[in-house]
Each structure stands twice: as C-alpha cells, then as structure tokens.
Design brief:
This protein is of the alpha/beta class. It folds into two domains: 206 residues, 3-Layer(aba) Sandwich (Rossmann fold), CATH 3.40.50.620; 83 residues, no CATH class. It is 37% helix and 15% strand. It contains ten helices and ten strands. A six-stranded mixed β-sheet has the order 3-2-1-4-6-5, sandwiched between helices. Strands 8-7-9-10 form a four-stranded antiparallel β-sheet, with no helix packed on it. β7 and β8 form a beta hairpin. α1 crosses α2. The protein is globular, with a radius of gyration of 19 Å.
Length: 308
C-alpha cells in the first residue's frame, strides 16, 4: 500500500466516524427533545459506554439530562460493575438498578435449568420502565450484531406491554424520526444502529474512551463449553470433566457471566483489538453469546417480549 493510498484509507475512516457521530448525536438530541423522561440503558459494556460518551458530547457543556438504567442479572462481571459505578460517579449522573436476583428471591422469576439469566431481564426491565415513567429508552444495540436487531428501526415503538412487533414499524426517511406514542407505550432508540463493531472500536480509539479491563487480553482461568471459553464463576459450575486451563483471553462483549464466552487473544491495546476485529468474520454475539444459540429466532423471540 502506497503512502497516498494509506492516507486515503485513513481519511475515509475518519470521515465515516464523523458521519456516524453526527448521526448519533442528532438522534440523541431529537429524541430527548420530545421525551418526558428519557433513560440510557447502561451496563458498562462498550456500546453503552459509547452511547453515554456521545450523550456527553450532544449536551455539552450541560450535564447529560438523562438517567441511567442497568438491569443487573446478579451474574455480571465484577470488573464491569466497578467500572459502571466509577463512570456514574465521575459524570455525576443518577443510576437506577433493576435486580434480577430480587425478582428470583421474591418468587416473581424462576431460575432457568441452564442457569442463564439474560432471558430473565425482560420483566425487571419493563417494570423499571413503567415504574420510573420512562418514555424514551436509549440502547446501544447495533444492526450488525444479530439478524433480529438488523430488522429493527432506529426508533422502535413498544406497546403497552413493552412488546415489539417487527411487522408494525414506522418508516424512517431523510433522518426524520417519529418518537410519538400513546400513554402506556414507549419507544426504544438506538443511536448506534448503523455502526459496526469495527466502527465502535475505531471511535473508542479516536476519542480515547476508557473501557473495562475485560475487553483487553489478560491471563485468566477458563474452560471450554459448547465451543466457547467460559470463566469459572459462582454462576458457572465447573464439571469434573471440564479441564480448567489458563489462557490469554479477552471479551468481545461483557454480558451475563453464565453465557458470555471469552476469545483467545493477545490484543492488549485498542489498536491491537482493532486489527483483530478487522480480521474476524463472526460477530461478537455469534462468537461469544450462548443465549443467542438457544434457537434460530432466540433474539427475535426475546425482543418481541420486550427484551433490549
């Protein structure tokens, strides 16, 4: 590659990020302008971190005029929870936590036989939205993650039961977004819809955004399960037949520990992660999320019920 060609490629990446950033900031401002009480779903994962970073830019120099909401499965990684709390404290924002464990303790939800709690997040999420009166809910979902998410619009109307109907979506022409809804309904808004995993990482590099340490390669005890490397955890029982070994791994996504796998990696910097992501042909959810393997339509079924 010649110097001129390399410069052209770099400029194209910069221009793409600038366009994506401008679009996301436009979406955030438009949706907040029509909201009574907006909220950002914030787990401490990279996509929610980028959405929050964009919100700080969209409303600067004022404080972000949006609360944060995390549906905590009780099986989250400690490193991510610590990062979440530190970020909230640094920005001086209000965080609401909906606990799946509390729903299990009071009998409103039952543990699944496979121990996975991601599918159990829907009821606490919908209760938190209704209980706090949120009418615009921002999420970090991207269309490149999974085929069901590829079907969803930037602004997604949810009915009185929080459910999504893929056959009843509004047209989105010329960057015009309709957030209107009836009492009892709400809209989910996805500012990163048109971003890819690679775009997210390039933006993190450009903006020098801090992330939980799990996203970078580190030495960790793991064992193989269904083609994934899982970490021994109170939520992840290790069988006698499971061989626990120490490997250099990182996490492409940081969800529930019971269903989120690590990938072998030596990428310890953002630049090295970018090179790794650019070479892969499997999405992060496809490579590391066991809950999406339950059926061909696992994600779509959960989204219809009110999932993220």
């Amino acid at each position: 590659m010649t110097t001129d060609t390399a410069h052209a490629v770099t400029c194209a990446h910069v221009d793409t990020l600038a366009a994506l950033e401008a679009e996301a900031i436009h979406i955030l401002r438009e949706a907040v302008a029509t909201a009574r009480k907006p909220v950002i779903l914030f787990s401490g994962g990279k996509d929610s971190v980028v959405v929050l970073h964009l919100a700080t830019k969209a409303f600067w120099p004022a404080r972000v005029p949006v609360e944060l909401l995390h549906v905590d499965t009780g099986h989250n990684f400690d490193e991510v929870l610590a990062f979440r709390d530190a970020t909230v404290a640094r920005l001086g924002l209000r965080l609401q936590v909906a606990s799946v464990q509390s729903y299990i303790d009071d009998g409103h939800l039952r543990e699944r036989p496979d121990g996975t709690r991601n599918p159990l997040q829907t009821v606490p999420l919908l209760d938190a939205i209704a209980g706090h009166g949120y009418d615009v809910v921002f999420g970090g979902a991207r269309r490149d993650e999974e085929k069901a998410r590829a079907k969803e619009r930037v602004v997604s109307l949810r009915d009185e039961f929080g459910q999504w109907d893929p056959r009843n979506q509004r047209p989105e022409l010329w960057n015009l977004y309709n957030t209107r809804h009836l009492p009892g309904q709400h809209v989910r808004v996805f500012p990163l819809s048109n971003w890819t995993e690679l775009d997210v990482w390039r933006y993190i590099e450009r903006e020098d955004i801090e992330l939980p340490s799990l996203y970078f390669a580190h030495s960790r005890p793991v064992f193989e399960c269904d083609g994934m490397w899982l970490t021994p955890h109170p939520a992840v029982p290790v069988k006698e037949s499971d061989a626990v070994v120490t490997k250099s791994v990182r996490y492409r996504t940081v969800g529930d520990a019971s269903c989120t796998g690590a990938v072998e990696s030596d990428a310890t910097t953002v630049a090295e992660v970018i090179a790794e992501v650019a070479a892969t042909r499997i999405t992060e959810r496809g490579a590391t999320r066991a809950d999406d393997r339950l059926s061909e339509a696992a994600m779509e079924d959960r989204k219809k019920e009110g999932y993220f």
